Amino acid sequence: MTKEKVPNRQTLTTWRKLLDESHKLGVRASQLRLVVIKCLSLFSLIIGFYFFSHIAHNWVVNKAHGANTHIIGMALSLFCSWLLQGLYNQQSIVSKTNMLSKLETALTAVFSARQHALVRQQTTFYWQSLWQKQSHDLTDWALEYSVQQTIAVIVPLFALAVIFFVNPVIGAGLLVTLPVVPLFMIIVGKGAAALHQKHFIALSRLGSMFTDRLAALPMLSTFQAHERQTGLLKEASDTLNSRTMKVVSVAFLSNSVLDFFATLSVALVAVFIGFTLLNELNVGPDITLQQGLWILLVVPLLLSEMKKLGQIYHQKAQAESAMETLAPVLVSYSPSVEAKGYEDKGYTEANTEASTEESTGSAQARGSQTEVATTSSAPVENGNGFLANEFAVFDEVADPVQDSPSLLTAQTLAFNQGDCILLSGRSGSGKTLLLEALAGQRRATHRCECSSIWLTQHPVILPGNVRENLCLHDEYCDQQLIAILEKVELSDWLKQLPFGLDTVMTDYPLLSGGEAQRLSLARALLRDRPLWLLDEPTAHLPDDQHCRLAQLIYQLTRDKTVIWASHKALPADWFTGFWHIENKHVIDKTELGHQRPSGEEQQLT
Amino acid sequence: MSNESKPAYITLLLAMLHAAAGLSILVISSWFIAISAIAPVGFNYVIPAVVIRGLALLRIASGYASMWVGHKDLLARIATVRMDVFSQLQNCQLEDKASSTEALAQHTEVLASKWIAWVSPLSSVLFIFTVMCIAALWTNLPGAVYLVALYSAWIILLTFQWLSALATARENTYATKEFRRASSHFLAASPIWHLNRKKAAEHAPSAMPVWRQQLNQKKKTLHTMWMFQGVAFALALLLMAGLLPFSEIAVFAPIALIVPMVLLAAPDWASASFNAVANAAQHQQSNNALNCLSTSPIQQLAEKPVCTSLQLNHFAAKNRTTVPVTVSLPSTGVVTISGVSGCGKSSLLQAIAGLLPAEGERSVDDHAISEGMVKRWLYVEQDPIILSGSVKMNLDPAGSDIAQDTMCELLEELSLDSILPLTNWVGKSGRQLSGGERKRLALGRAVLANPLVLMVDEPFEGLDIKTQERVCKLLEKEAQSKLVIVASHVLPTSLSIDKHIMLEEASIKSVNQHKRQFA
């Protein structure tokens, strides 16, 4: 039988702790506060019941109004209970808002640090649901389910103590039967889990069928397959339903066990008290009406909080799936990395690895990798160069608890200010990885800390106008913008635009691939940064365009340090160094003479 | 319809029974204890004791039954709603992508859960509350007025909650849409975040407005519950203190305890109704969303074999900045379209297949054909969709009884034998396919459907040379009997090409030129 990767409660709590420590979410404190408030509210309610039972006793037995002290006591304790409940509601919302905004800050900080290297790994939809939905699921679990879990343990104990105090016989009876409830629930839960396990594959396959076929609508109509698939869908949902009912029938028993004990305990306690009052039963001490009523009112509290827990049980399952995706992203990164600053100049002996390790408190630190980090080269103090020995790039969103293999290694990597290095390798060999590591967007032993510029294969055109596309959040005067557009040979294009710099770029902007790349080149040129990382900026252009644009880039970046990944032909005399990636290893081929390594230009991506 | 709703009504009935039994136990128990304390002569204690135990069993049984029936009904409803939506979408295209299919699945769930999410909890509380008030007034129960007062407060609070819940649900939908839009733009710009003076975190959109609306909904529910609790406690207190002048508590009989007990327990037994109101608002929202589902129909045209030629005259996909093409394609052979990425190869292919609205003219054997998807003109996407299902299902989605041997042979030709046997489950929660495998599986699917015209978008991307050659061979074989159009920015040397179209790069210049030319 295959073992499904379902995290248990232990790991969910462990993750929560990890997140709490690395991002200072303050969840633990909020949880404690909520538990205390809610318990206090329920305690005052129990005290309120005490006064109520006194007044009732006076009514029925003494045929008189309640004593003033009792009435005031009841008023005060009910009022307290009510106020505390209001405070609980308010605190619950406030701490949720806090946690959400902290999670969002943490997530956007990860975005800031890892940037495109992280974002490009998943679809936009993935990030959106991680951001909006899963953070919310996690918060619900941490500040609702977890809190209720603690309350469901404390309140019954307190209620039991009260009952014991009033009447030890009833208390003992309940004490004996109460542990049976969780026991039964565990047995039933295990049974349901086993059934779920048995149907797991079928349930997950059939369950996702509807969305799967919805996504395939156009394909289904081209193949005239809609009717057939409708039939299949119907069949699938019938099977799914009958299988789900099998699992659910058992799972509901758990709920019924609770209901059974909750209802029966009230009923039996009532009968017992009644019979004792009637002197039909003579077990234990005598009971007054006041005591009897108080017990009757307190007994439901034994299990009502547990029932409420059952009602929000889905939060746990949702949090588990949220943790699976959210935790690796957040835990693999901690604020201390960012504290090092993004704009630092010069060399760093980047031991981000070690600091991540420490701050996340991961006990299972990867000894070998930490070693690598500490043995990295001593910094060389001249300009914006780079030197790295025993260089390694690690998997970004790997489970931090497990050992993540390095994605790319190098014996020695070095360049000086003003160097121009050609990076070659088959597509998929890791050229982009290396550039990302150098820019500090990926976890690696070293990174170049001088500020850099990236050009990717696919130029980004923002939905705003041309000016916004160039300026982003900086300010440049129109002359500067026009001058830069002239430099990248876009003057003609600019003249054709109906509103010049104010022309808004639509979903399908009036730009050819080459023009779009020039626009992004202009955007980069506006920002004077020493290091240029070029990730095949001409890959998608036809040969003549590629030559013209490459020439342009070469001329415009002559005074910069450039690392240029390309598998299209570029003149060798442009470059001062040649790196080649093969089998996850970067080889410095500069010494071998200025010939281009061969055999890599077979494929385009 | 009535047969379908039967389980729903049974659920409702059982839920009412469950709630009523629970409250009755409390009421009868307290009365029983009270009367036992003063033990009148000839008091028959056996009957109430039996009734209490009977009610307990009734409550347990009805609780389980209502859950069971309710869930079964829910599942059946989900199936029905989804089948309805799915049938409604025949030959349609959803305007949005991933987010909308997920949202659609969720909306159908909300719609189907109508009964257990709000109808039955709300009506069972309404039922017991109403019955209790009427019974209390009828029997002139001491404190009945307080019960009626609580009832009125409940109605008022629920009404207010309903109104604001509706508004919040609406705002939530709006905020979600806004966040999706803003975050899409934000995430798409990730390659240039580093150029920004501000860190990504500083100009990132926030999901806070969405969360705020969601929390708001919760807050309003909690608040209403809290107000209700306050009213119930206050009334209980007033009643017990005997403060209000019209209090009829002169009677001091055991029966007088019933109303205060009900008042004190009110926050428990009435709480389900407040959650139900929030769910009802969500239901309303999902209902609206499903009603105004944005789809675009795909016009279906009858089969059109190409006997001599397929001509395109100033033909291009509509609303795209691509240069229109004028070309005549042969009835058989391999035609390749190449050009820079983004020049509109894919949209041209889709326009020819009729999957995208087009401008210009498309004619077969000199007869112009109207807009729409021509049957058996198959288009294989660049990133094809693989159904979550068996390999066989993916090769024959229409269930047209293609021989298994034919399928296996074809898979071998495409060097896809690694995904055999045909019963293998691929896609979601099955064997994950690589990009190249998906392309070839989709190509196999198209070939098996025996198309009249076969259009393939970037078939060679991500394939090694040997596999590329195999794909070329297959395309050439198909091209002997039909027109095969291949759009690709790499063309393997081994592919024998009958006609090559080089797409001009669309830019503002070329588009303007064309506009001038054909104005």
UniProtKB/TrEMBL annotation, chain A:
Superkingdom of origin organism: Bacteria
Membrane topology: Multi-pass membrane protein
GO MF annotation list: ABC-type transporter activity; ATP binding; ATP hydrolysis activity; ATPase-coupled lipid transmembrane transporter activity
One Pfam family per UniProt: ABC_membrane
Domain annotation ABC transmembrane type-1: ranges: 152-318
Main localization of the protein described in the UniProt heading: membrane
Transmembrane domains' residue ranges: 32-51, 71-89, 151-170, 176-195, 250-275
InterPro entries registered for this protein in UniProt: AAA+_ATPase (IPR003593), ABC1_TM_dom (IPR011527), ABC1_TM_sf (IPR036640), ABC_transporter-like_ATP-bd (IPR003439), ABC_transporter-like_CS (IPR017871), P-loop_NTPase (IPR027417), Type_1_exporter (IPR039421)
Compositional bias per record (Polar residues), positions renumbered to this chain: 366-379
GO cellular component term, pick one: plasma membrane
Start-end of Low complexity biased regions: 348-365
Localisation: Cell membrane
Keywords tagged on the record: ATP-binding, Membrane, Nucleotide-binding, Transmembrane, Transmembrane helix
Annotated ABC transporter domain residues: 392-605
Chain spans, region Disordered: 344-381
Record-given protein name: ATP-binding cassette domain-containing protein
Organism: Alteromonas hispanica
TrEMBL record, chain B:
Spans through the membrane: 12-39, 45-69, 115-138, 144-163, 222-243, 249-266
Keyword line: ATP-binding, Membrane, Nucleotide-binding, Transmembrane, Transmembrane helix
Taxonomy, superkingdom: Bacteria
Keyword Ion transport: no
Entry GO CC: membrane
Gene Ontology MF term list: ATP binding; ATP hydrolysis activity; ATPase-coupled transmembrane transporter activity
InterPro entries: AAA+_ATPase, ABC_transporter-like_ATP-bd, ABC_transporter-like_CS, P-loop_NTPase, Type_1_exporter
Residue intervals of the ABC transporter domain: 301-519
Alphabetical list of PANTHER family matching this protein: ATP-BINDING CASSETTE SUB-FAMILY B (PTHR24221), MITOCHONDRIAL POTASSIUM CHANNEL ATP-BINDING SUBUNIT (PTHR24221:SF503)
Protein name: ATP-binding cassette domain-containing protein
